[in-house]
């Protein structure tokens, strides 16, 4: 065997205690050096951060001071601009006086309804006119309706401080007298027509039928001359409009009249001004006091500015972060009312709760009559005129045209219990009125002086043919009603400028989208969409004053205008009326330059704040 190989390598030398202490000392020095460098770096960064924060704070304070100076200047300009509102009221007053002067110089023979002697003379002279035919009454009714509309506009457009109580009583009295006289004239003319029923009888049926259509009135008259018990279905001029009468009426000397007035002269007049006028009066009353209070608030705010800077800064930063997340810029306008509205709101709630409606009575604060009134009458056939030796002899009853009572008050002579069944009626809904849901039929209660929904059964509505059929226990005035707040609350709204003093207002609801053009003191319906389809209306393209425009839209079924009681029927975030009016005024001042829209944040803020999107 060969010799064994020697082991290579050296043994590791052990670290001495002195060397280990030296190593630990070096590590400790390095750690302290790193900590010192980190401390110096942190202090330097902190100083730089504090310096940047100081510079930003100085810039913010400079911006606040500059903004305060600018706001003072803008408030002075705002006071100057708000000075135009009293000027506008003065201009409206001058316009009303000018309209009276224009009417005076026209000399067209029509009376000025605001002047009591003139309208009383007109009414007295018309009462003296006798033997007017239906055609003559309908022609005269255009002037009468025009006078009534003028009086209603005076009551709506004139501010309360320019309208005395005696004038209100006078105008409403003239309206009621004209309405009653017009309906009386229709009754007299109907009686004259029915006296000649035998000479106007149809050759086929032997009964008389008369149809007169006008822009304001549609009249259907049928006289039962033959008294054929088999003739129970009455239809006018080959239409589906008419009645299904029972046997007892088919064998009686009666006449049926359907007088469809496209206006409503049955519903009582509102005893108080509308909410629009109330808001205008409230704001006008407080304009001068508001300016003084704003000036005092500004001087007080200047004194407290130093104390509030930090709070305002944090508040602005929070709002900016919130609006950046939403992606839209929103402006919050906060107004504080001098007098608390809580007391007024509680009083309104108490008054509403104390208002007790009878069973089936229509609440006119919640519902609106649409399409006019259908006057359904069963009339006793007057004595017919008889020719004799070239003369026409007719017996004229002293009591005039009499209604046939159906069902009669006493039914002792009638054997069967169902001898007086409800009468089936088929009516045509006015084509210029929009119903977003099936209309509800209501009848007039002459004793209670209100509309109610009882005594009506078997209601069916054909929307395409615009025909409504129902059974009626007793005849009288009938109308169709719709919820006044069916288009409330809005889904969205937008106010977009088109030109100087010209904007486009778009309101989107559950059922429709309405676009309204506004320029200076006029409004026009631009377009309507129903179920995302364009709908034509006779109101499109017609410029009207605001009050006339609002009334026209309401009569067409397009009610998007809240009343003073709407917040009781619609679930909304109630706003202080004075705050709303202030916001409207500021929007009006900027509407030619900025577009405004609805904001979801407006529903979560309190009643003293209004938030819109700009």
UniProtKB/TrEMBL annotation:
Superkingdom of origin: Eukaryota
Biased composition (Basic residues): 1-15
InterPro entries: CASC1_C, IC97/Casc1_N, IC97/Dnai7-like
GO CC annotations, alphabetized: axoneme
Domain IC97/Casc1 N-terminal: 30-230
Chain positions covered by the region annotation Disordered: 1-39, 302-331
UniProt-recorded Gene Ontology molecular function terms: beta-tubulin binding; microtubule binding
Domain CASC1 C-terminal: 449-612
Any Pfam family: Casc1_N
Coiled-coil intervals, chain numbering: none
UniProt feature, compositional bias: Basic and acidic residues: 16-39, 302-312
Family indicated by similarity: Belongs to the DNAI7 family.
Name of the molecule in the record: Dynein axonemal intermediate chain 7
UniProt lineage: Eukaryota, Metazoa, Chordata, Craniata, Vertebrata
């Amino acid at each position: 065997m060969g010799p064994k190989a020697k082991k290579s390598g050296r043994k590791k030398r052990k670290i001495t205690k002195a060397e280990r202490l030296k190593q630990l000392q070096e590590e400790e020095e390095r750690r302290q050096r790193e900590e010192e460098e980190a401390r110096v770096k942190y202090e330097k960064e902190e100083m730089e951060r504090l310096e940047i924060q100081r510079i930003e704070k100085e810039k913010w304070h400079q911006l606040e001071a500059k903004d305060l100076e600018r706001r003072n200047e803008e408030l002075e300009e705002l006071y100057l601009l708000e000075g135009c509102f009293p000027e506008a009221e003065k201009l409206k007053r001058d316009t009303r006086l000018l309209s009276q002067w224009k009417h005076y110089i026209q000399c067209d023979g029509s009376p000025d309804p605001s002047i009591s002697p003139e309208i009383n003379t007109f009414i007295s002279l018309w009462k003296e006119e006798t033997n007017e035919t239906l055609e003559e009454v309908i022609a005269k009714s255009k002037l009468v309706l025009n006078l009534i509309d003028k009086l209603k506009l005076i009551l709506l457009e004139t501010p309360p401080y320019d309208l005395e109580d005696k004038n209100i009583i006078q105008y409403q009295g003239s309206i009621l007298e004209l309405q009653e006289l017009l309906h009386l004239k229709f009754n007299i003319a109907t009686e004259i027509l029915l006296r000649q029923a035998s000479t106007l009888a149809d050759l086929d049926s032997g009964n008389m039928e008369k149809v007169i259509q006008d822009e304001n009135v549609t009249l259907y008259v049928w006289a039962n001359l033959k008294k054929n018990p088999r003739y129970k279905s009455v239809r006018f001029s080959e239409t589906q409009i008419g009645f299904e009468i029972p046997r007892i009426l088919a064998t009686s000397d009666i006449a049926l009249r359907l007088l469809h007035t496209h206006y409503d002269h049955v519903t009582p007049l509102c005893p108080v001004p509308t909410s629009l006028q109330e808001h205008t009066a409230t704001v006008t009353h407080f304009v001068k006091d508001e300016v003084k209070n704003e000036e005092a608030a500004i001087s007080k705010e200047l004194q407290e500015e130093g104390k509030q800077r930090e709070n305002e800064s944090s508040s602005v930063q929070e709002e900016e972060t919130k609006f950046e997340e939403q992606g839209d810029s929103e402006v919050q306008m906060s107004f504080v009312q001098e007098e608390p509205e809580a007391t007024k709101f509680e009083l309104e709630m108490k008054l509403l709760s104390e208002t007790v409606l009878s069973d089936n009575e229509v609440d006119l604060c919640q519902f609106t009559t649409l399409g006019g009134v259908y006057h359904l009458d069963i009339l006793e056939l007057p004595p017919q005129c008889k020719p004799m030796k070239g003369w026409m002899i007719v017996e004229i009853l002293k009591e005039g045209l009499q209604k046939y009572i159906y069902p009669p008050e006493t039914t002792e002579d009638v054997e069967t219990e169902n001898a007086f069944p409800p009468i089936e009626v088929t009516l045509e809904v006015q084509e210029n009125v929009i119903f977003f849901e099936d209309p509800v039929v209501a009848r007039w209660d002459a004793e209670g002086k209100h509309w109610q929904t009882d005594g009506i059964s078997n209601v069916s509505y054909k929307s395409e043919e615009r025909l409504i059929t129902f059974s009626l226990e007793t005849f009288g005035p009938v109308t169709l009603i719709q919820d006044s707040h069916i288009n409330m609350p809005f889904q969205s709204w937008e106010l977009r400028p088109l030109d100087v003093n010209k904007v486009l207002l778009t309101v989107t609801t559950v059922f429709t989208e309405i676009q309204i053009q506004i320029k200076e003191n006029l409004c026009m319906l631009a377009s309507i969409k129903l179920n995302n389809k364009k709908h034509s209306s006779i109101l499109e393209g017609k410029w009207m004053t605001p009050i006339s425009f609002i009334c026209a839209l309401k009569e067409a079924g397009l009610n998007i205008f809240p009343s003073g009681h709407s917040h009781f029927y619609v679930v909304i975030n109630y706003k202080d009326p004075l705050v709303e009016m202030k916001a409207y005024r500021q929007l009006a001042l900027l509407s030619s330059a900025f577009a405004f829209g609805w904001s979801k944040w407006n529903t979560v803020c309190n009643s003293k704040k209004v938030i819109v999107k700009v």
